[in-house]
Every structure is written in C-alpha cells, then in structure tokens.
Amino acid sequence: MHQPNRQDNSESLEKKDKQHEDNLKFLKTQINQLDESIRDLQVSLGRYHCSANVAETANDNSSHTEEETMGQILQQENSAAGVFCWLKANHLSQALDLPLTKDVLGVVANLARVDDDNLSRLLSEYLGLETMLAIVSKTFEGVKALEKYDGEGIVNSRTGLHLLGSSIGKRINGRFLVICLEDLRPYAGGFVADDQQRKLDLPKPKLQNGECPPGFLDYAVNMINLDRRNLSCLTASGHGLRETLFYGLFSRLQIYRTRSEMLLALTCITDGALSLDGGMIKKPGVFDLGSRKDVEVKFPVASGKSNAPVTYIQTEDMIKKLEWERSKFVEDMQREQQLLDHANFTRHA
C-alpha cells in the first residue's frame, strides 16, 4: 500500500494553493464587474440630481423652452441664423423652392435639448454665441445654396440666404458659421445598448488607480437629447446628429458635479471638462476663469420628466442589490485569502 510522502503532501498543498488563488482571481473579477455596474447606475443618479437641484430652485414654468430659444435666435435680427429661422417659421424659404430647404436642418441651438436650465447655460456658454447660431447642413450642396459669389469672389447678395434676408428687409452682417455634417469625421465607436437616444458608448475616464473619478456624471455629447425627428436625421453614410454634429462640437468633454471634483480628475481629462457649479476647462492646460456669462442663445430644456422619480427609485434599489452582492463576494474573498494565508503559514511553520 502506497504511503503518502512529503512530496505527495507538498503537491497536494500546491494544488490547494492554486485553487485558492484561482478562486481569489474569480472573485476579484466579479467584484470589478459589480463596481463598474454600480458606477454606471451612480452616474445616472448623478444626472437626475443635476436636474432635481435646479427644479428645487425654479418651477417648471421657468425652464427654458423651445419657443424661448427660437425667440432668442430671432432677436439676432441681422444674423444668418435669425434670418433662416424667421423664414422657416413663416414657410417663406419653401415658397421660393431653394435647395437649402432640403438639406439645411436648422441652427445648433434648436437641434437638441437638455435636462435642465443649469446644463443649458453651461453647454451654451462653452460653445459660445457664434457656434450656438451656426447653421447646420447635411450636405455640401446645402452649404453652397446658402451663399454664392461673383467672378471676383465677392458675395453675391442677390442669391441664397442673402436674397431671402433682403426680401424681408433684413441684411446679414459679417461672417456666419455653417457646419456641414457629411464633411465631419464622425464618432467611430459603438452605441449604448438598448438606448433610444443612441448615446455613444464612450469608455469612462479612469484615474491612475483604475477607478472612475468621483463626481463624474457623463460626457456632454451624451447629455443632450434629440427629438424623434432629429434622431431619424441621417447623413448619406448613415450617421446621426449625435455622432457627427454634437461629437464634433463636444468631443469627449466631461461633466462633473463640482469644480473641486473636476480638478481632482485633471490627469484623465482629454478634451476639456465642465462642472455644474461653473468650472470650465476648455482643453488640457487651458482653464476658463472668472464669472459665468449668460449666453444670449441657449439650448431649450426637455419637458416631461414624470417617470424620473420611478426610474430613480428603481435605480437606487438596483444599486442596493448590487452592493449587497458585492459585499458577499468580498466576504468570500476574505475567507479564501485567510485559507490561503493559513496554508502558507502551516507549510512554513
């Protein structure tokens, strides 16, 4: 009969050690996955808090509406955006049957909505008035329809948007921005699964320790809302407004709860950041200081948040459930570590 020797015992102990180490790796992976899920849900709660904080200081009637945004644009009387929106509101551009009616979509300011007034002010200030008033065209044909030139390269005021402006007694002063979607480099990644808004699946920023920075809410490009009409607006190559226009404007601009939290995350800010209390980093190394400026044209605020409290409660419950699961994995991990430590101690005693 075979008698176990020291070598057999050593091999048996090594197998047990290997099993404990494998169990520890598995449990660590499970904990990391739960941490990621919990952070995702905490981000969604953070966004709700962003809206709720503003709602506490202002009633729904004071939120910036689409009509107010249109009114702000129309007040820029001698701007290209003001002329275009006036004509569109009165259906005069269609009456003249110009190519610009087919491909020119509107103005940046009225192509998206946001969740609350504070976010509207922040994003509008970040972009600035000139960009908020930029006219957006799906194609270069639409851009060409807006303005034509004579043989010497001088603007022909008897054509395009200049002619339309003159027809209603308005003259377009100075230069104006036009953004051509088909010439923008679109976001090349995927989209958040089962998301009706087709938000971009951007990886969360991570500090050197591998954790998501405290106070990070989301990327600005995912914090704007598109209505059904604008969601269905696609370029010839199949790209939507979020991955072309708004990714081009915001790139990976990060949004944080507070300025102090934003500053703690400097090492993982690649394309600028904003904080809900007014902090602004234009790009790495470029800080925008001083008092906040209220831009003359702002994004409208999305209405209809009746489901937010229900979603909020469901999200809180899910976080509690995941945190409970995590605590159980942590307990299992501690037991495995104790068994491994005890085995190592016994072997070397």
Rg result: 28 Å
What are the segments in which pLDDT stays under 50 over at least 5 consecutive residues? 54-61, 305-310
What's the average pLDDT?
A: 83
H-E string: HHHHHEEHHEHHEEEHHEHEEEH
Q: What does the overall shape look like?
A: elongated
- Strand tally is 10
Question: What labels would you give this structure?
Answer:
349 residues, 13 helices, alpha+beta
Notes on the structure:
This protein is α+β, with helices and mostly antiparallel strands and 349 residues long. It is built from 13 helices and ten strands. Strand 7, helix 12 and strand 8 form a beta-alpha-beta unit. Helix 2 packs across helix 3. The longest helix is centred in the first third of the chain and has 52 residues. The protein is elongated and about 95 Å long. The two termini are 29 Å apart.
Element layout with pairings:
Blueprint: H1 6-57, H2 66-75, H3 80-89, H4 92-95, H5 100-103, E1 104-107, E2 113-114, H6 117-127, H7 129-132, E3 135-137, H8 140-146, H9 160-167, E4 178-180, E5 216-219, E6 224-225, H10 228-231, H11 242-250, E7 254-256, H12 259-264, E8 273-275, E9 280-283, E10 286-287, H13 308-348
Parallel strand pairs: 3-4, 7-8
Antiparallel strand pairs: 1-3, 2-6, 5-7, 8-9, 9-10
Helix pairs in contact: 1-13, 2-3, 3-9
Q: What would a concise description of this structure say?
A:
The protein has 349 residues and is of the alpha+beta class. The protein contains 13 helices and ten strands.
